[in-house]
Amino acid sequence: MDQRPVERVRTDVLVIGGGATGVAAACTAARAGLSVLLVERYGFCGGGAVAGLSGTICGLYEASDTPVTPRQLVHGFVDDFIAQMESRGGLTEPMLYGKTFTRVHEPLAWRESADALLAQAGVRVLYHALATGVHRDGDLVGGAAIWTKSGMLDVRAPITIDASGDADLLAMAGFRTWCGADGVVQNPTMIFRLQGVDTARFIAEYGHDTIMPAAVSERILAAQKGGLDLPRAKIWLFTTTRPGELLCNCTRVRGADGRELNAAIAADLSEAEPQGRAQVRAYERFFRENLAGCENAWVNDTGVQVGVRQTRQGAGTAVLRNSDVVAGSKFADGVARSPWPIELHAGSKPRVEWLLGDFYEVPYGCFVPEVGEGLLFGGRCLSAEHEAVASARVTAQCFSYGQALGVAATLAVRERRQPRAIDGREVRTELNRQGARLDD
User: Are 205 and 197 in contact (CB under 8 A)?
Assistant: First the structure.
């Protein structure tokens, strides 16, 4: 038992998690004049983009059969973040990714950009802190218990935002969640950075598309037969803002029994980390022995943790369906848009299903729990079906979700309404006023 005294803290909005969703939500609510406390378990913001080293801002651009010039479809808070990153030289120009484009970021610049925006907005940030439970009175959530090095905090807030990525607060409160397709989730990946690469030779050999060509996949399959642990043959390799470096998204971390590991299960998450590091070394060896420009390369770093694509989804008043993504569905209460394909990582070959020349929208109800007041949630844990998550979980969209959550929290606190009483069309109108351009 912890004998230290518990400190009581009051704030208008409590945000759990400092990934793209949490940072955008906190900044948006604070810019509106609310008091905001952001709680983050690491010593920096970034979530999967930084701790998991996913490394790219995906989901900004329209997809096309003949991608030549990037056409940005997603705006709002993400533009502020991009401006911060660019001012630090921490973001590449758009890079070809199959039928669309993405931008690779430098992880320290991501952290610094978040620091700057949070400070400018007046957000109180508590690093190295962890939510251990929610304050629930009936169906009303009124804050959370927070563990820190100096003791427990009893944080009370009229609105709490679960931006944990794993629907942690919903699970703690006993609200309904689900995992993947009958419990089967997309596999985690240990992403790493490879230094000492002759990137000019690499690009000359394999082209500018960051999704590697079939010839590379064929070499991986041959190396598999030779005994190397290379369980994923279709891989993504990106040049970065640093000279001589590749960002490598290529491992497939799975259980000893062959199943996709679920990072919401403590034993699975623990199993994933050493296996991910072992696979990194196997791919490093393969790159040095087989890929042009990588003969003298070495692993510079891995993610702080294994990269997680999917764990729990929160049950919302609305659900983003697989069919909505494929059909490019639009909603009157759509508060975010996405042109990103279904990018389903399971098995040796990820499946990519493109949405060409179009985008879909995510309705407000995907962030409002079906049961419970005083609580909003968002990020990769949004209310969505399994394949829809494989599109909707990426970084640009998470920035959009966070901005929408910040707007909804502001309306709720100022007007003393519950999130479910807010019409998503009101949120959409305010997002447009803030530059989201959802009606362009």
Answer: no
Tell me if 265 sits within 8 A of 271, measured CB to CB: no
Question: Dihedral of CA 372/374/377/382: which sign?
Answer: positive
For residue 416, how many other CB atoms are within 10 A of its CB?
9
> Between the CA of residue 47 and those of 19, 53, 73, 439, what are the distances in Å?
4, 9, 23, 29
Q: At what angle do helices 266-290 and 214-225 cross, to 10 degrees?
A: 110
- Please give the structure tokens belonging to residue 4: 């230290």
DSSP β-ladder status, 56-57 and 100-104: antiparallel
CA distance 21 to 153: 23
Structure tokens belonging to residue 263: 């990072």
Instruction: State the maximum Cα–Cα separation within the chain, in Å, rounded to a whole number.
Output: 65
Q: Residue 215 is encoded by which pair of tokens?
A: 């010839």
What confidence category does residue 201 fall into, taking pLDDT thresholds of 50, 70 and 90? Answer: very high
- Region for residue 233 given its phi and psi (left: phi exceeds 0; alpha: psi -120 to 50; beta: otherwise): alpha
First to last CA, the chain: 56
Give the pLDDT confidence of 84-114 residue by residue, as tens digits.
999 999 999 999 999 999 999 999 999 999 9
